[in-house]
Amino acid sequence: MKIQKWQHQSLMLLGKYYFQIGNFPESKKCFQQVVNECRKQKNKAILADALNNQATYLFELDPEKEKILKEAQSLYEELGFEEKIIEAKMKLCTIYFWSGKLNVAKKILYQNIAAMRKIGFRQQQFGETTIAYIESVQFNLKNALYYALKSVKTMENTNDYTFADIFYMRLGIMYLMLGHYDDAKNAAEKSMQYGQHIFNSGSWYKSFITATASISMRGKNKEAIDYMNSVTKNYPPTNNFDKMLVAYSYANCYWRLYNYTLAEKYFKETAAYCALLDSPQTVRDVSNSYSTIALFYANRGDLKKTQFYTDKIFELSKKYNKPYNSESLQVSLYKIDSLKGDFKSALAHHKMYKILSDSVLDYAKNRQIEELKIEYETVNKEQKIKLLSKESNLKETALKKSKLLNTVSIWSLVLLLLTIGLLYSRYRLKQQTNTALEIKEKEINQKNINLRHLLDEKEWLLKEIHHRVKNNLQTVISLLNSQSAYLENDMALSAIKNSQHRIHSMSLIHQKLYNSENISTINMPNYIKELVEYLKESFSLGQRIRFDLKIDPLELDVAQAVPLGLILNESITNSIKYAFPTDRTGMIHITLEGTSENRYLLTISDNGIGFDTNMNAKKINSFGLSLIKGLSDDLDAAFSLENQNGTILKIEFSKDFPINQKVK
After folding, report:
1. Which of 207, 213, 220, 330 could cysteine-pair with 353, CB 3.0–4.6 Å?
2. What is the average pLDDT across 309-326?
3. Which of 137, 135, 242, 130 is closest to 481 using CA atoms?
4. Can you name the residues that pair with 600 across neighbouring β-strands?
């Protein structure tokens, strides 16, 4: 019949068939023939669909797949096919996801979700759950939990439960990571219910392990083992991946029960199944298993086996170009280096472990604050009830005493009216004075108690305010980071980055006040050291630019610490950006020292190229320099900028900051 459309459809169906039976060369040949013939037709829509189909039936790590999809995406963009653009970008996202380019994949996902909203496409849960996974891998737990919850809400709002086991599974894992064990078990059981009885996408067994872990993490390890026995009896694992998960769970439960023999048996069984799993899709779960096994042997002092399993992780990361990190891995590496005597490396691994664990502890701390708040209010009310009861008893006693004294006084007046009248009147006056003094003393004591409670409550509330301000500033940083994903203009991206640094310098002050016993002043040596470390990591300086800090022990008020932090941020950022062009190495010196009583000098200098003294005033007066000058004026500080073998910036200010005068 010579109908080319159906010839192409038949060839593509044949290509899919060859792909499914494993004859990949013949599959490629069919799709390539369709693409070649479509190119001759010079019809962009037909060619784009042919390229899209061709890329779909190539492996994710095939080097040709990305190139073909980008050509299809470009054609769809020329044609204005918005849904097809989203489809092509989603397939590109899958390539970047499995090749380890998580930030690129995440950026595409954010863009796709925005595009879906624009065209009114409601089923956004597939992108949202993937973002939740990527954010959890990168230890951005707040964003991960947000998108895990959002994916479930979107699924329920659209009434599309096709892959419900995956969405509930991801939410359960996030709750487990954050220590919400009851919520984790509920979400995991929902995933199991859909996977067992409605539609199984292959994820519910992972949720079964999450439910087991939620029981175990509450210390109910025997109950967790019984739970596993009952589920595996009715639904035995059918593949090596699920078998690995079951063995891994048994091992952890027995480890927490201190039954090291059975724990080691199941860990060896886990490792055996891990060895049979070799694909980019399983590399993270296998690395998780190896990481826990390594920690098990590290805690038992078995250096050889610990090293063996950590090496396995590095081999997998290198093979699939998928970097892996976890708390257990960093602890294992820390213990290996400690036993070897390499204390510098051990310290670096311990530092990384603290960074990873702190991201989880922040959430636990938030929960504790809410719990402490409830506990505080309950205790406070109980104390008020006790005080009121005590006050009532005292009044009742005083009333009885008063009645008794009145009776005695009356009889005394009747019997001794003529003989001791004068003495009695003086006695009554003295009694009244003593009673008044006692009442006053009680009132003063009660007021002191109330004031002490109010002071404690005020300090607690001030800390909570600093904590919430810090969290809000971190939220602003996260929002700026999300906004940068949609920007391509370098100046705009640089402006957002500078704004994030400025906000972080202020956020760090509120974090210091929250964590410190002293909520009125900032310890400047610690603050400046942490600010410099943040900027080093933000600009990925490594050893190219080094810092020399000489900071006198100094405590400053928040009103001075905030502008000084912003001045430091602007000065250091300018030195990093402009003082050392073409990747030159150099030093940045920061000193804060006393010049006289209550006078201090802040100096930031570098050995870079310096600034051009021939520049006109308009060019020199950049936003950053204007900000530094303005902040110096706010501090009533003397500001100077010199050019001596580099740039030298000096700020001299007084410790006694006239806050009230400045406000007026």
Report:
1. 330
2. 83
3. 135
4. 594, 653
Q: What is the CA radius of gyration of the chain?
A: 35
Continuous segment of H or E residues that includes residue 558: helix 558-574
For residues 479 and 538, give the distance between their C-alpha atoms in angstroms, rounded to a whole number.
Answer: 17
Tell me the two tokens of residue 314: 């590095």
**Least confident piece of the model among 22-36, 117-131, 407-421:** 407-421
329 phi and psi angles, rounded to 5 deg: -65, -45
Contacts of 463 (CB under 8 A, 6+ apart): 513, 514, 519
Residues 6+ apart with CB under 8 A from 245: 205, 206, 209, 237, 285
- H-assigned helices in 235-342: 240-256, 260-276, 283-299, 303-320, 327-340
Q: What pLDDT does 549 receive?
A: 92
Q: How confident is the model at residue 465 (pLDDT cuts 50, 70, 90)?
A: low
Is the Cβ–Cβ distance between 651 and 632 less than 8 Å? yes
CA distance 129 to 143: 11
CA 636, distance to chain mean position in Å, is 38
CB 594 within 8 A of CB 550: no
In angstroms, the CA 120 to CA 117 distance is 5
Dihedral angle over CA of 659, 476, 492, 66, nearest 10: 160
Measure the CA–CA gap between 511 and 532, rounded to whole angstroms: 16
φ, ψ at 587 (rounded to 5°): -130, 145
For residue 651, what are the β-bridge partners?
Answer: 602, 639
C-alpha of 379 from chain center: 32
CA distance 280 to 105: 15
- Secondary structure class of 557 (helix, strand, coil): strand
For residues 496-507, average pLDDT: 70
The pLDDT score that the predictor gives to residue 288 is: 86
* Tens digit of each residue's pLDDT (9 = 90 or more) over 101-152: 888 888 888 888 888 888 888 888 888 888 888 888 777 878 888 888 888 8
Beta strands 586-596; 545-551: pairing state: parallel
Half-sphere exposure of 570 (CA within 13 A, CB side): 18
69 vs 491: CA distance, rounded Å: 30
CA 215 vs. chain centroid, Å, equals: 25
Location of structure tokens 């900027």: 535
Phi, psi of 654 (to 5 degrees): -100, 140
Distances (CA, A) of 221 to 225, 236, 249, 257: 6, 20, 10, 7
Q: What is the pLDDT of residue 318?
A: 84
Entry pTM: 0.48
Q: Using alpha carbons only, what angle is made at residue 634 by residues 633 and 638, rounded to the nearest 5 degrees?
A: 35
pLDDT at 633 over 60: yes
In contact, 356 and 330? CB cutoff 8 Å: yes
Query: What is the per-residue pLDDT for 620?
Result: 45
Distance separating alpha carbons of residues 243 and 177, to the nearest angstrom: 22
| pLDDT, position 659 | 42
Which amino acid is it at 268? K
Identify any residues that bridge with 638 across adjacent strands, giving them in sequence order. Answer: 652
Return the SS3 of 398: helix
- Residue from 329, 300, 298 nearest 312 by CA: 329
38: tokens are 């479509």
Residue 67 identity: K
Q: How far apart are CA 126 and CA 161, in angstroms?
A: 11
The single residue listed with the structure tokens 């064990």 is 181
Q: Band of the pLDDT at 360, cuts 50, 70, 90?
A: low
Looking at residue 575, the DSSP 8-state letter turns out to be I
- Cβ burial of 655 (10 Å; 0-12, 13-18, 19+) is middle
Supply φ then ψ for residue 246, to 5 degrees: -65, -50
DSSP letter for 545, please. Answer: E
**Which residues are registered as beta bridge partners of 604?**
590, 649
